[in-house]
Design goal:
This is Anti-sigma factor family protein. The chain is of the alpha+beta class and 265 residues long. It is built from seven helices and seven strands; from the N terminus they run αααααβαββββββα.
């Protein structure tokens, strides 16, 4: 008997064949002794199984196997697991919040430190430029001085550093977000070898800090100086001693003169 016929034989035995197919299948079985023998064997096997397990079939289903009880238990376990997970998550959140609360907040850098950092950043950007190193050329010194003085609200005349073999290239206006006025001036100088020095100048209003400080930033050195009216940070790719030698000349010329009238440009 083929597998297909065996499947139809099992369906016939289980009364699962459609009525139209059942009559046709019975007609085929009548002439197939092997199929009839297998059908008889299957019926005997079914009767034996029924006789063996019929008493169990009559027993009531144990309470522990009741499907409703099983579903309820599963739901309870799911809720318990969710509650445990929620508790762990809440503990983690509280721990993280406590850690953030107890962690010391880093102090904001002093304003003069920001000015030094801004001076070095501006030097790094503009000292490397060739055609656009300055916004207003040194040949327009009078215009540059009046413009920067007006924008900074203080008297600013670019120092003459020719005695230190430095020629004045010009300058530009820069933002200074940490200051009340929000502006700074950068003046640029160059020696015969093409090495550049910049002065980063701001009003001293609201700035607390040392009168003099020298800092090294990789290849660059920065020397910060301040009095009651002006701050100036000299920056260059030179040793700090070279900036200190230049400082007296620069700061002596930056002290503002009284009585100047500013005009908008």
């Amino acid at each position: 008997m083929s597998d297909t016929d065996r499947d139809r034989l099992m369906a016939y035995l289980d009364d699962a064949l459609p009525a139209a197919d059942r009559a046709d299948f019975e007609a085929r079985l009548a002439g197939d002794e092997a199929a009839l023998a297998e059908l008889a064997a299957l019926r005997r096997q079914g009767d034996a199984i029924s006789a063996l397990y019929r008493p169990v079939e009559a027993e009531a289903v144990p309470a522990r196997l009741d499907p409703h009880r099983l579903a309820l238990g599963q739901a309870r376990r799911r809720r318990r697991h969710l509650a445990i997970a929620a508790s762990i998550a809440a503990a983690l959140v509280l721990g993280l919040a406590a850690g953030l609360t107890l962690r010391p907040v880093p102090a904001a850098p002093a304003l003069y430190d920001r000015l030094i950092a801004d001076a070095v950043s501006a030097h790094t950007v503009y000292a490397a430029e060739s055609r656009h190193a300055v916004e207003v050329a040194g040949s327009e010194g009078a215009h540059l001085s009046a413009w920067l003085s007006d924008r900074l609200g203080m008297d600013l005349v670019p120092p003459d550093l020719s005695e230190a073999a430095l020629s004045f290239l010009g300058g530009r206006l820069l933002p200074a977000p940490g200051l009340a006025g929000g502006r700074a001036a950068q003046l640029m100088y160059e020696n015969a070898e093409g090495e550049r020095i910049t002065l980063y100048i701001t009003p001293a209003r609201g700035i607390d800090g040392p009168e003099l400080e020298t800092v090294r930033f990789g290849p660059d050195s920065a020397l910060y100086w301040a009095d009651e009216r002006v701050t100036c940070t000299i920056v260059g790719a030179v040793p700090p001693e070279a900036l200190q030698a230049l400082a007296g000349t620069v700061f002596g010329q930056l002290r503002p003169r009284e009585g100047r009238n500013y005009r908008a440009l």
